[in-house]
Amino acid sequence: MSDHTPDSLIPYDEIVQEALRAVVGRVLGAVERSGGALPGEHHFYITFKTGARGVEIPQHLRERFPDEMTIVLQNKFWDLQVGPDRFTVGLSFNQRAAKLQIPFAAITAFVDPAVDFGLQFQAAATGIDAPVHEAAENDAPAAASGGGADAERGAPGDVAAHDDGSNVVTVDFNRKK
User: Fold this and answer.
1) CATH code for the domain in which residue 25 is found
2) 62: exposed, middle or buried (Cβ count in 10 Å: 0-12, 13-18, 19+)
């Protein structure tokens, strides 16, 4: 027997990535149908490639986050609209309202820290390490305990780093075993 795994003629990695991104669409669609109300303590960190095709964000955000950006959907968001391949949402950044349009294909991470659930997706560009980016900074009220903004709770990558049996799903078809 050979230790070499043959290359697949079926694009399993693309199929799985598309299915996992559909989970994000389904969750956001349920929030949209509920009038924008998040159930219980649920809230979402969504990380996406700002330069990906179809991403529409204000120029000042593109300049500040030229590669990747994380947004928080928790308290202050509006006009959530979910389509078959993208979503739009209104958020506030430094007291400035902004409308963002994000294709699901641009998303690199989706985390719901309330239930320790996360999905990480392969980056669109292969063979390039994504530079470290700043944490989410869209406006959110301080925590009830008097703590800082929601963005200070950590980035989606932090959840994936947990080795405690959390519900983080990471799919990497580029590694050979």
Assistant:
1) 2.30.30.220
2) middle
Q: What is the tens place of the pLDDT at every residue in 19-58?
A: 999 999 999 999 999 999 999 999 999 999 999 999 999 9
> What is each CA distance from 34 to 27, 105, 107, 120, in whole angstroms?
11, 24, 23, 26
Distance in angstroms (rounded) separating the CA atoms of residues 70 and 123? 14
pLDDT digits (tens, 9 = 90+) for 91-130: 999 899 999 999 999 999 999 999 999 999 986 543 334 4
The predicted model scores a pTM of 0.70
How far is it, in rounded angstroms, from Cα 110 to Cα 91?
17
Tokens encoding 6: 């043959």
Tell me, yes or no, whether 115 lies in a domain.
Answer: yes
